[in-house]
Amino acid sequence: MIVEEAQGVVVVGAGPAGIAAALAAAGSGVSVVLLDGGARPGGQYYRQPLVGPPDTRTVRAGARLELAVREHPRIDHRPRTSVWALEPDPEGTHLVHTQQGPADAARRVRTIGAAALILCPGAYDRVLPFPGWELPGVCSAGAAQALAKGQGIAVGGRVVVSGTGPFLLPVIASLLDVGAGCLGVYEAGTPARWLRHPVAALRDGLSKLPELAAYAARLAVHRVPYRTRRAVVAAHGRDRVEAVTVARLDPDWNIRPGSERRIDGVDAVCVGYGFTPQLELAVAAGCALRGPYVAVDAAQATSVPGLYAAGEITGIGGAELAAAEGEVAGLAAAGRAIRPGAVARVRSGRRFAEALADAHRVRPGWRTWLTDDTLVCRCEEVTYGDLRGAVRDRAADGMRTLKLTSRVGLGPCQGRVCGRNAAELAGLDASGADRRPIAQPIRLGDLAEPP
Ligand SMILES: Cc1cc2nc3c(=O)[nH]c(=O)nc-3n(C[C@H](O)[C@H](O)[C@H](O)COP(=O)(O)OP(=O)(O)OC[C@H]3O[C@@H](n4cnc5c(N)ncnc54)[C@H](O)[C@@H]3O)c2cc1C
């Protein structure tokens, strides 16, 4: 195996965290290799359209960051480059295995040796299952937004959005931007829970108020109903989604009996219940976790020497926090002093993130929306009944045995969509579900004979 030894710092992921890390490290005089699976830098928040000029404030801000990255003499940005595995090297560096190029074409496989590595791979959005969620037309809120922002395509003309958290608002904005009609937004939680965190809401969340107000104004202009303590609890249709059932929920998200209401004429449902951090690279490297996130110290250093983490893998708190963490990680990995301003922004962002997690926590009552024949794992078509059978009759007492006895999480998504839900439904500990030594699909030929 030929290893390209990187001078300076290697950053994985070019979202808000990775870009800030790369700019901070490079700005302090160190060379940076910035690896990203996307065609253009920006990550989820600054996702750049693949065609057409930038036309929103966020896209314009992303375009400025893209220019800063591209023109920086010390940043070697490698787009369309996925890190498919990470392993420790006996020399004390990290071996970063990458593949470059579009899928289904000859991909270039190479390994980079990094003494200082910053992981910023972000998160993916969480979908909860309900009867009918496997119908074409039901998709994750993030997928709908990526399609709208990246390709300018609307998932449907008569869309219903359901889930929890402020992320639902930019999703609707993106849908409206591309001409979709939105029949309603159903927020399973309630903004009243923010009253438990007045300090975080007012002091640390103040900068987000104008953005929130702009979203509220757009909903009003387009007459999109926004209902709290309600959720889509079933989707109906023959070959694709045609209608949904919306129900009122109690504080634990159990359906209030008799509150179900059918909405007909629906052609798409977007579902988003928060985010799940992409932990596979950090887990493969042996980083200690704190709950579902990578544990880091004040310099964003993980428990593994020379390995830093920033952005959504250390906690879900939005693009501003991700960028502040990235700046701290970039300077620390470059061996430079960390600016007090960045540390203060991280602290404030984390307080807001904790309040956000509490205010929009997924409540256990969602499990009562399911029937025995509701699919839990769409890839392997495993139902809730199959899952219960595996626990009851085949003594599945951990995620590994649950996978082997029911096949849940063994399909193409490798449990990224269903793993956390299956663990909760089976009453099992979800830790270990992120142990995937191969983080991205790779061809056997590339594995066997790297050029
Ligand atoms: C689908 C989705 C949509 C979102 N939309 C919004 C929004 O509109 N507004 C908002 O405020 N917040 C949004 N968020 C939340 C948002 O992700 C964060 O606030 C912010 O973008 C996090 O920054 P990050 O740098 O940690 O991660 P990201 O922005 O997710 O960036 C991670 C980057 O890492 C790359 N990557 C991941 N794994 C690998 C790998 N193995 N190899 C190479 N590259 C890799 C990805 O391609 C991506 O470019 C969204 C989140 C998701 C999941």
Q: In the CATH hierarchy, what is the architecture of the largest domain at level 2? A: 3-Layer(bba) Sandwich
Find the CATH topology of the largest domain.
FAD/NAD(P)-binding domain
- Order the strands across the largest sheet as they lie in space: 4-3-2-8-21
Task: Supply the helix-strand structural class.
Answer: alpha/beta
What does it look like?
The chain has 451 residues and is α/β, with parallel strands linked by helices. It contains 13 helices and 23 strands. It has 3 domains: 3-123 and 276-338, 3-Layer(bba) Sandwich (FAD/NAD(P)-binding domain), CATH 3.50.50.60; 127-273, FAD/NAD(P)-binding domain (3-Layer(bba) Sandwich), CATH 3.50.50.60; 370-426, no CATH class. It has helices at residues 16-27, 57-71, 141-151, 168-177, 198-204, 209-221, 280-285, 319-333, 340-359, 384-393, 399-406, 419-426, 444-448, and strands spanning 3-5, 9-12, 32-35, 75-78, 81-88, 94-100, 108-114, 116-119, 123-125, 138-140, 158-164, 181-187, 226-228, 230-236, 243-248, 261-264, 268-273, 275-277, 289-290, 293-294, 307-309, 375-377, 382-383. It is globular. Bound molecules: flavin-adenine dinucleotide. Flavin-adenine dinucleotide (FAD) is lined by residues 12-18, 35-38, 43-45, 82-83, 120-125, 142, 145-146, 167, 170, 275, 278, 311-312, 318-319, 322, 439-440. Residues 12-18, 35-38, 43-45, 82-83, 120-125, 142, 145-146, 167, 170, 275, 278, 311-312, 318-319, 322, 439-440 line the site of flavin-adenine dinucleotide.
Fold blueprint:
Blueprint: E1 3-5, E2 9-12, H1 16-27, E3 32-35, H2 57-71, E4 75-78, E5 81-88, E6 94-100, E7 108-114, E8 116-119, E9 123-125, E10 138-140, H3 141-151, E11 158-164, H4 168-177, E12 181-187, H5 198-204, H6 209-221, E13 226-228, E14 230-236, E15 243-248, E16 261-264, E17 268-273, E18 275-277, H7 280-285, E19 289-290, E20 293-294, E21 307-309, H8 319-333, H9 340-359, E22 375-377, E23 382-383, H10 384-393, H11 399-406, H12 419-426, H13 444-448
Parallel strand pairs: 1-7, 2-3, 2-8, 3-4, 8-21, 10-17, 11-12, 11-17, 12-13
Antiparallel strand pairs: 5-6, 6-7, 9-18, 14-15, 15-16, 19-20, 22-23
Helix pairs in contact: 1-8, 3-4, 4-6, 5-9, 8-9
Bound molecules: flavin-adenine dinucleotide.
Flavin-adenine dinucleotide binds next to α1, β5, β9, α3 and α8.
